[in-house]
Every structure is written in C-alpha cells, then in structure tokens.
C-alpha cells in the first residue's frame, strides 16, 4: 500500500509548500510575488552553529597537539651566547636622489673609456672602440656556406665563400686541443 501525497498545483508566481502552509497573501506593491510564511527554524540554526563551533574546537585541538609533537621532536637549540656576534643587517640601498645631475658626469666618463686609451685598476688595457672595431673587422670569418663572392666585412677582398678548410691559413679555425690539454695538466 503506497501513500501518495497530494501536491498542490502552483499558480503563476506562487510558492508551493509541501510541508508548510499555503503561499502568502499578496502584499501591496508586490501583487505578483509570493513570500514564504515560514521563518528560519531556530533549532536547525543552533545545531548548525554548534556543529561549526565543535569542528573549530576539534581542529584547534589537533593543531595544538601537532605543534606540541613537533616541539618535542625538534627542541630548540641552546640560546645564543651574549658574546656571539649580533645579526648583521645589510646596508640600505644607495639610491640616487637626483640621477639627472650625475648622468652627464657618468656619460663623460664612459665616453673617455670608449674613445681613449688607458689601463683599468685590474691592469687591463683598453683602446678606443673605433680602433678596436677596425682591427677586428678584417679578421672576422664569414659563415662556411656563404654565397659565392662574399668577402670580409673589412673589404680587403678575401673570399670566404668556400668551406672552412679551404680558407688560407690565418683564417682557419684554430686547432687548440693540444694547448688545452697541455695547460690542463
């Protein structure tokens, strides 16, 4: 024997309650809207809050227990000696307050290094950049499979369109394996 529940038909914009009273009466200004006649059930709200509170207490207790377990297994070391050096705080960054005032001097110094001869603090010599480029450009090697007739960037007319091994001696790839092995010992 089955129990059939009679479900009321819903009219337009009317809430249908299966466990509560019928839909609310229309309210002035909201004639086409129905509202529930049921309030929140206090017992359900209290039980929900109790479950949430209990869960929080259990999680807090587990967290404290794990913390105590970790402290017991990994005790703190001995306190630092009063004679031990204090923690060194790194210096603050040295920011330029007015970089536009220092920029011309910096550029002048860089131009002197790029366009002049000299020796730096480490003993390395430098020459003007245009002299260095003119000295290096004629010695640059062209790719091994370059098109026929390609010459060095310096324009001395040396033809490097053949393979690397067909190049004249001074333009071949250096073979320095013996030098590396000699100095490695």
Uncertain runs are none
> Main sheet: which strands, in order across?
1-2
So how many helices?
A: 4
The span between the termini is 101 Å
Helix content: 25-40%
Average pLDDT taken over every residue: 73
DSSP strand content: under 5%
- Element order: H for helix, E for strand: HHEEHH
Q: Classify the secondary structure makeup into a structural class.
A: mainly alpha
Task: Find the count of extended strands (DSSP E, 2+ residues).
Answer: 2
- Cα-based radius of gyration, to the nearest Å: 44 Å
Query: Could you give a short account of the major beta sheet?
Result: 2 strands, antiparallel
Shape assignment: elongated
Summarize the structure.
By secondary structure, the chain is an all-alpha fold.
Characterise this structure.
This protein is an all-alpha fold and 185 residues long. Among the domains are: 10-39, no CATH class; 42-72; 106-132, no CATH class; 140-172, no CATH class. The chain contains 4 helices and 2 strands. The chain has helices spanning 42-73, 99-115, 129-136, 177-184, and strands at residues 118-119, 125-126. A two-stranded antiparallel sheet has the order 1-2. The longest helix is centred in the N-terminal third of the chain and has 32 residues, at 42-73. The protein is elongated.
